[in-house]
Amino acid sequence: MKERATAVEAVRRTNLGEVLRLVHHEGTRSRSLITAETGLNRSTVADLVTALVERGLVVEQEPDPTKRVGRPSPSVSANADVIAIGANPEVDAIEIGAVSLGGGLRARARIERDGVPSVADAVATIADTVAQWREDELAGCRLIGVGVAVPGLVRAADGLVRLAPHLNWRDEDIASPLADALDMPVAVDNDASLGARAEHLFGAARDHADIVYLNGGASGIGGGLILDGSLIRGAGGYAGEWGQTRPGIPNDAYRRTHDGVLEDEVSRARLLAAAKLTGGDDAALAAALAAEPGPTAEEEVARQRHVLAATISNAVNALNPSMIVLGGFLGILRDRDPESFDADVRARSLAVAADEVQIASAALGRDRLLIGAAEASFAALLADPLG
After folding, report:
1. 276 CB burial (10 A radius; 0-12, 13-18, 19+)
2. Which positions fall inside the HTH iclR-type domain (predicted)?
């Protein structure tokens, strides 16, 4: 009898997680729609929603009866006061966001830095920012955890940062000291893998199951790969390092390094220098490149677009995705002339694979990595809302 009770409770927890996942990823739904989407009966759905309301994870509202024919079904929404913190330490800044259950951004900060942050620097900055938010923007909210998007190789088994070369981090544990500082669980993953997940759930790749995501940041170029709806991590969790591939550059006029990898040739630092900027976020870079930056910058943009298009065509040929998403400064490169960039990719790809692929800049913009990092923190809650 005890085993049967345990099995029943496990099924209930799974069903609670599925209902919470629906309203978190898909938005507000009526009880009747949840019933149709889950295949559960009405009374079961009513019980599950009530349990989630009691836990403070969802809110339920009666619809306007004047706008519906027949008996209206209550609507269920994720509680926007349930928050996960997302953080992205980079070589020039540490970005931090408070993301609501449901995917909305409640607060955001970018702390510029003169030097590359150590793990201790990142922990202190994140902890100080969250402490301030708890007294102000997030007063009264329930914080459930932190996700950290690291531009480097992160071991899937335990979140250890094996190598983040641009941060000078090697075999670093950021999760433990951050968890101690905030008294919350911490999840750590590669930034591009988290960006891919965010764009798949909430952004440009929402309706796609086979996705290549490339992220361009201050630390270089990373990537995420989703096939048949599942994030591909590789044996140790290190898959997707597109920036370390060597692009084919048959014309020496387009080469800036000898035998360099992709992120040596397609580089945010080179774009900043061409635009005569010493720093700044992607918005500042995009604005500078759009404001008649001069022939040197135009030439550099054209060169990087050419090399990037060649790399993406290899991804089209090898993986046959339905969607390719470009984040960070890679999206800026494409957005200079999307039609000609996409045409360049298609011209270099196998025609049958290129016919169906779509290319887009990250729809979540500068928030993609923070939303992805927060999603890593929400994972435990979605798996077991009663945990």
Report:
1. exposed
2. 18-61
